[in-house]
Write a structure and sequence with these properties.
The complex is a heterodimer of chains A (751) and B (154).
Chain A: H1 3-11, E1 19-20, E2 24-30, E3 35-40, H2 60-63, H3 70-77, E4 85-91, E5 97-104, E6 110-116, H4 130-145, H5 150-165, E7 169-175, E8 181-188, E9 199-200, H6 207-215, E10 218-221, E11 229-233, H7 255-264, E12 268-276, E13 279-288, H8 296-341, H9 345-350, H10 353-359, E14 364-369, E15 372-377, H11 382-396, E16 402-404, H12 407-410, E17 423-430, E18 435-441, E19 446-451, E20 458-461, E21 464-467, E22 473-478, H13 487-554, H14 560-591, E23 596-600, H15 601-611, H16 613-616, E24 621-625, E25 630-634, H17 635-652, E26 659-668, E27 671-678, H18 710-720, E28 725-730, E29 734-742
Parallel strand pairs in A: 24-26
Antiparallel strand pairs in A: 1-11, 2-3, 2-6, 3-11, 4-5, 5-6, 7-8, 7-13, 8-9, 10-12, 12-13, 14-15, 14-18, 16-17, 17-18, 19-22, 20-21, 23-25, 26-27, 27-29, 28-29
Chain B: E1 10-13, H1 17-29, E2 36-39, H2 42-51, E3 60-64, H3 72-81, E4 90-94, H4 99-108, E5 112-115, H5 120-137
Parallel strand pairs in B: 1-2, 1-3, 3-4, 4-5
Helix pairs in contact in B: 1-5, 2-3, 3-4
Classes of the chains: A alpha+beta (751), B alpha/beta (154).
């Protein structure tokens, strides 16, 4: 149906129709003296003089053809700002009885309406006298107060309104987010069809009608086939600025609405607004198979029932919400405990699949973080989940939970996953790391029964709007929708999110504190080992120095054994000094600043080879250098690393002719893997784990000299770059030493 | 080695008697004939150098870094603050090479920084090189041969 038709309907100025229904007369009084300014045409000759000009501009008492005591004027002057006041009954000179209702119009005039009492409108005045209303109201209140579910409340509400008003059918009608209305309660006899459970399109009650119903809480059309009576003003034209009749009980309604009622087959209708927080929540709608009028007092009584029903409905919903929240709270608490205990909160969630899904009544969930995407239960594939998360971040921001029970209306291509993901509730956790927890609900194929084809609620024919003719049940199969997320579930997700954010924040702080402590401890240890080594150096120097002096002075006087002892002292002292030097150097590597640059490994290897030239001068060494990449790292440290590895290779191939030393690099996963291979003395794989330890040696000093700290240094340097080290070897068949450097430049802080 | 009558003294500032003995033995071994003035800590060194009444300025001061009361860095700082000793060649001798000592020493205007090697052969070589360079090879700063009772010998 074209939107233009709906819009036209929405724009109709129904509050100022310029005419009234004929079951009463309307007088508009102006100014402090309440002078007659407007009157409905039929008032002439009945309650006003036949020539209205005689009455206009006069005070009411002068013109009215009926008894009117003094207190009336008082009460007319003291009308409250809002609401219709029942002033009492008037008997006109002609003998007709009226109930007098007055209110202040938004224009500032006093509107006095005289509704005919039981004048030829089918059945007598609804049959209820004032005294009967109170016990009925009391009963109605009791029954509504004891209703425990919305269905029960709606059914009882419909019954009580029907009891009060005597209409053939009373409906409780509740609006959804799109202003479609569903009948949730009904009481009827067999004269009109059942509408319980049917849905009616939003256009059945256009926007300006809904607005009006918020300020004017009940309205009655006793006979839809009425001929509207124009409201005339002093100049007799009945045109010009029409009176604002929004609050008038006699207001004439839109012709579209009248046609609608005729098509529905209900000549008389009354509706009462159900308000929540001042806004339209639903309607009580009464229909009769023939014209019917009920007095103002009955309408007011129905309005009281409506208010009671609205309050009770809100209370029932609030109680259900609170009960849900309680249940969800306990689940939420368990989830939080698991998350807090896990090292990564995502695992804490993903490890408890059943509870994670049960938490929000979902069939599946996904936990997305920097570390990856974990799927739980029934979900779309990971790639799709990631896309949805990206879209969410862009379109809806990362500040709040997002819930939909019809994903395809937001994301068209979601239709292909409608079976598992028609409903989606996404909980963003952190903007920086784009972490999400997303819950999915499967499609539930629903059948909505409409009261008439909702695709054609209105038609524009020959320049006029016409409502649909058929109110036959029209079934719509709704696809791509899941069961909706309840307010308590959305709130629970918000709570969880707040808690996770708190945990993450706490973790970050803890980690920062821990890192701070570790850095301090590391610093202290390094300083300690440094100062100890430093202090040890001097005594070793002295040992060596004095032994040397002694040797010079006394070796002639010493027997070979003593000389041997002396030599041993010197060597031991030198060795101790060398150990201390190595330890100092190692500690220094730990403390040195990491200064990354882009490094050409080919150049670095060439540098190291050149520095080791003297050691290979007298030997045949075959170098096989593969293609080496550029890396990011600290040049000094990496040169030291290469020096250590290459000098080892040179040292342990001393017995080989030629010594073959290879340097190569491959790319695996996200790392450069470097290898330095030699054909030297090798080692037994059983001892491989010990290789990289500090002061670890696998050969005796007389076979190959050395301190045993070179490889520990290599490992430390590699680790500072975010890489790893390992070795493979075979006794007597050579060794391969591997180290990796990450491909991507990762921010290596404070390593 | 030299028949130059201008044998300016070397100064050794060292608190460890062992190190004094070893250094002196090394100097002797390398036949460095210059007289050696020994100060046992920073206070004694500054007394001699700044007051300058006890003798001429040495050709070089071999300054140990870690000493009680007044350490090598402070001695260096005070020396550089005095016009008399501002240009006096100072070689910092130390047990180990610590980054901040290095920076600080050079900032304060040290002329050389030598780490005492453990092996005696290396130590002898170092001492000999130092002695030969500073006492014989190096041109002293102008005006440094004046002062003191044994003053200008040339």
């Amino acid at each position: 149906m074209s939107d233009g038709v709906v819009e036209a309907c929405d724009r109709e100025p129904i509050h100022a129709p310029g005419s009234i229904q004929p079951h009463g007369h309307l007088l508009a009084l102006e100014g402090p003296d309440l002078l007659l300014a407007h009157a409905s045409a039929a008032a002439a000759g009945t309650v006003l003089p036949g020539n209205l000009a005689d009455a206009f501009g006069q005070q009411l008492e002068r013109g009215l053809l009926g008894e009117l005591d003094g207190s009336w004027s008082e009460r007319l002057r003291c009308l409250p700002e809002a609401g219709v006041v029942h002033l009492g009954q008037i008997r006109a000179r002609s003998g007709s009885q009226f109930q007098a209702l007055a209110h202040r119009s938004p224009d500032g005039l006093v509107i006095l309406e005289l509704e005919m009492i039981a004048a030829g409108l089918g059945q007598a005045a609804g049959g209820l006298v004032q005294q009967q209303l109170h016990p009925l109201l009391r009963q109605a209140f009791d029954r509504l107060a004891s209703a425990s579910t919305l269905e029960e409340l709606a059914a009882r509400g419909a019954e009580e309104v029907r009891r009060l008003s005597g209409f053939d059918r009373a409906l409780i009608y509740c609006f959804d987010d799109d202003w479609n209305g569903t009948v949730i309660g009904e009481a009827r006899n067999e004269r009109l069809p059942a509408y319980l459970g049917l849905r009616f399109p939003a256009s059945d009650i256009p926007a300006q009608a809904r607005r009006l119903y918020e300020i004017n809480r009940h309205r009655l059309i006793p006979d839809v086939d009425y001929v509207p009576v124009p409201v005339l003003s002093a100049d007799g034209r009945g045109t010009g600025d029409p009176l604002d009749l929004g609050l008038a009980v006699l207001r004439s309604v839109s012709p579209v609405h009248r046609e609608y009622m005729r098509n529905m087959g209900t000549p008389a209708s009354m509706s009462v607004s159900l308000l929540r927080g001042g806004h339209l929540w639903g309607l009580i709608s009464c229909h009769h198979a023939e014209p019917r009028w009920v007095p103002f007092a009955v309408r007011e009584a129905c309005d009281l029932v409506a208010q009671m029903l609205a309050v009770r409905a809100a209370a029932i919903e609030a109680a259900a919400y609170a009960a849900d929240r309680n249940q969800l709270k306990s689940l939420e608490r368990r989830l939080l405990v698991w998350m807090a205990e896990a090292e990564y909160f995502e695992d804490g969630l993903a490890d408890h699949q059943a509870e994670l899904c049960a938490f929000l009544g979902a069939a599946g969930a996904a936990v997305l973080s920097r570390r990856g995407c974990t799927l739980v239960g029934q979900t779309p594939p990971a790639a799709y989940v990631r896309r949805v998360a990206a879209w969410l971040g862009q379109e809806h921001g990362l500040d709040d939970v997002f819930a939909t029970s019809r994903l395809s209306s937001a994301l068209p291509d979601a239709a292909s996953f409608a079976d598992v993901a028609s409903g989606l509730l996404a909980m963003p956790i952190s903007a920086r790391s784009s972490s999400f927890v997303v819950w999915f609900r499967p499609e539930i194929v629903q059948t909505v029964t409409w009261g008439g084809d909702p695709r054609k609620p209105l038609a524009a024919e020959s320049g006029q709007l016409h409502p649909r003719r058929s109110f036959e049940v029209w079934k719509e199969t709704v696809r791509g929708q899941s069961s909706p997320w309840s307010a308590s579930q959305i709130e629970a997700a918000r709570d969880l999110r707040a808690a996770i954010v708190q945990i993450v924040l706490t973790r970050v702080e803890e980690r920062a504190a821990l890192t701070g402590r570790m850095l301090r401890i590391n610093k202290e240890l390094t300083a300690f080992s440094y100062s100890v080594s430093h202090d040890l150096r001097a005594p070793f120097r002295h040992i060596v120095g004095y032994a040397e002096l002694l040797k010079e002075r006394a070796s002639d006087h010493l027997d070979p054994k003593s000389q041997h002892y002396l030599r041993t002292i010197m060597e031991a002292g030198r060795h101790a000094g060398a150990l201390v030097d190595a330890l100092l150097h190692f500690a220094q590597t730990g403390r040195a600043q990491y200064a990354p640059t882009s490094i050409d490994m080919v150049t670095l290897v060439a540098d190291a080879r050149q520095m080791l030239e003297p050691d290979t001068a007298d030997r045949r060494v075959e170098w096989r250098i593969g293609s080496l990449p550029h890396v990011t790292g600290d040049a000094t440290m990496l040169r030291q690393l290469l020096l250590n590895l290459l000098s080892n290779a040179i040292k342990y191939t001393r017995g080989r002719d030629p010594a073959v030393i290879e340097v190569d690099c491959t790319v695996e996963d996200d790392e450069f893997v470097f290898v330095i291979r030699d054909n030297g003395a090798g080692f037994e794989m059983a001892y491989a784990p010990k290789l990289f330890g500090v002061f670890q040696r696998l050969h005796r000093a007389e076979e190959f000299e050395g301190i045993g700290i070179g490889l520990a240094n290599v490992r430390r340097i590699a680790e500072r770059h975010g890489g790893r080290t390992w070795a493979e070897g075979e006794q007597d068949r050579g060794a391969s030493f591997f180290f990796t450097l990450p491909l991507e430049v990762v921010r290596l802080e404070a390593r | 080695m030299t028949t130059d009558t201008r044998l300016r003294p070397l100064m050794l500032v060292e608190d460890s008697p062992n190190d004094v003995e070893l250094t002196m033995a090394a100097l002797e071994r390398c036949r460095v004939a210059n007289p050696v003035i020994v100060a046992r800590d920073g206070v004694e060194a500054l007394d001699y150098l700044i007051r300058g009444r006890d003798g001429p300025l040495p050709a070089v001061v071999l300054l140990d870094l870690k000493m009680p009361r007044v350490d090598g860095l402070e001695v260096l700082e005070r020396l550089r603050a005095q016009p008399r000793t501002r240009r006096l060649p100072v070689v910092m001798l130390t047990s180990s090479r610590e980054e901040q000592d290095l920076v600080r020493s050079y900032d304060l205007g040290v002329n050389a920084f030598v780490v005492k090697p453990v092996g005696s052969a290396e130590f002898h070589r170092a001492i000999r090189d130092l002695g030969v360079f500073w006492a014989i090879l190096n041109e002293p700063p102008p005006g440094s041969t004046e002062g003191g009772p044994n003053g200008d010998l040339g």
